[in-house]
C-alpha cells in the first residue's frame, strides 16, 4: 500500500523526503496517517525527519498513535522519535489513550513513554 514503488522512484529521482506542504505536513506524516508502514520505513531509511511536526504541532508518531497504526509505530520507534510532550502540548501516548488504543498504549510504554507526563493542552 501507499504506492511504494512510486515513492522509491521519486526518492531515487531526487525528491526531497522532508519537503512539507504549506501547512507543514511532511510526507512521513501523511504516510503515517494513512497507515502505510512500508512507505514509512523507506522514508525513514532515506533520511525522513522522524520528529517533523505540522504547523499544529502533531508528528507522525502522534498521528499513528491516534489511529492505532501499530505497524507504523514500530517502524517509527526504530528511529527513536520523541516520546515526550510535543510543541502542541500533548504526546503520542496521550493520543493513544484518548483513542482507546490499548495495544498502542502498551507499545509506547514498552518503548519508554512516560505515563506520568501531563499534557499542556
TrEMBL record:
Signal sequence interval, chain numbering: none
Top-level taxon of the source organism: Eukaryota
InterPro entries, sorted: Ankyrin_rpt (IPR002110), Ankyrin_rpt-contain_sf (IPR036770)
Annotated Pfam families: Ank_2 (PF12796)
PROSITE patterns registered for this protein in UniProt: ANK_REP_REGION, ANK_REPEAT
Extent of the ANK repeats: 23-55, 88-120
Record-given protein name: ANKRD29 isoform 7
Species, as recorded: Pongo abelii (Sumatran orangutan)
Keywords in alphabetical order: ANK repeat
Matches recorded under PANTHER family: ANKYRIN REPEAT DOMAIN-CONTAINING PROTEIN 29, GH07239P
